[in-house]
Amino acid sequence: MRLRHIFAAALVFAVSSARAEEPWRAYERHEAIEIPFANGPIAMEHVPQVWIGLRGARPRWFGMDTGSTGIVTSAEHFTPGRGDVAQGPGRIVYNSSGRILNGEHWLTDVVIHRDGRTPVATARVQVLRVSHITCLEHARDCRPESNPRDVGFMGVGFDRESAQGTTSSVPKNPFVSLVSLASGRPVGPVRPGYVITRTSFHLGMTPELTRHMAFVKLAPKAHPPGVPDWNGAPMTLSVDGVSGRGTMLVDTGIDYMFLSPPAGTRLRRGEPAPDGTRIEIFLPDRQRPQPAWYALRVGSRGNPLHPEKVEVVHDATVFVNTGRQFLQGFDYLYDAAGGYVGYGWTGRVSHEYGGVTPGAR
Q1: Is the peptide bond preceding residue 289 cis, with omega within 30 degrees of 0?
Q2: Could you give phi then psi for residue 161, rounded to 5 degrees?
Q3: Which residues of the chain register pLDDT less than 50?
């Protein structure tokens, strides 16, 4: 009997160890729903768009932004109605552009569509109905405006509350806050999280989607019940051989990179990184074997991962916002339930510029 207990305990330990080393095993018996981007594959020229339906308006394209959290919409795309809950004034700050969107918060149902006619899933989240736009001092791209039209942006990122001047008191991210599926199937097997590829996004995760990924554990962050959030993804940044540890943000909302470099580089804050600058990013840090990494030399446009430009900013810590060209070479996972990001090498780009060793780190 004792041997049987020892064997059972060893088996449980082995299974637990395998799951720790292969986080994708947590997605067994789960489902994922693939939805192509409405405007085609991710490209330098445009933000990926998703069909979204709000109360009182036809479904329309909303820009999908992994660099922010929460939905903003102009008044013509959302008319509050029965079941919606007014939650007072609010705003969201977009640091990349310097725009501040101001308006009223509403808790409402958001329908994610495959196209203009086919609903897929419904989330219940807070939405900002925008009344006017103001600008940060020294904004990169901003024009003040009252009663703006054609505002439609959907932030599905994490760890953005402090940067955008909001609080995590209620659910804001529709991709991790599903309440029902249009098929009528239970929503439970769709784990809170997503996988983003160059051509589509997947609500939920499966082993088939994620076995090729390097998983990086995120540090926990205090949050209200039902509103999962995690600290930013760790990385080591090297600029011309000068390295420092910080965090990285994959941001589909912009076509350029901006970074706050480690001390000791020749980069000047507030100016573009000069041509020839060698930038290397190691995820989550330098290791052997290396879980995930990529590199670029500023001005070498033959690298598909090269952003439109590289700007140097002044932050308190080392930081990189990759821009969306990152997704030319990587698939990207955010597991809101388990606290992981994942990076999968797609093989579309030469290993000269990056790569992945699958597993957990």
Answers
A1: yes
A2: -60, -45
A3: 8-18
Nearest to 237 by CA among 307, 161, 303, 296: 296
Nearest-angstrom CA–CA distance, 333 and 348: 18
In a domain, 165, yes or no: yes
Residue 159 falls inside a structural domain? yes
pLDDT one-digit tens code per residue, 144-162: 999 999 999 999 999 988 7
**72 and 136 co-located in one domain:** yes
Is the separation of the CB atoms in 279 and 260 below 8 Å? no
Sheet with strand 340-345: strands edge to edge:
33-36, 200-203, 193-196, 330-335, 340-345, 213-217, 359-360
Indicate the SS3 state at residue 138: coil
CA gap 65, 67 in Å, rounded = 5
- Decide if 8 is inside a domain: no
pLDDT per position as a tens digit, 72-96: 999 999 999 999 999 999 999 998 8
Q: Which helix (H) or strand (E) holds 5?
A: helix 2-21
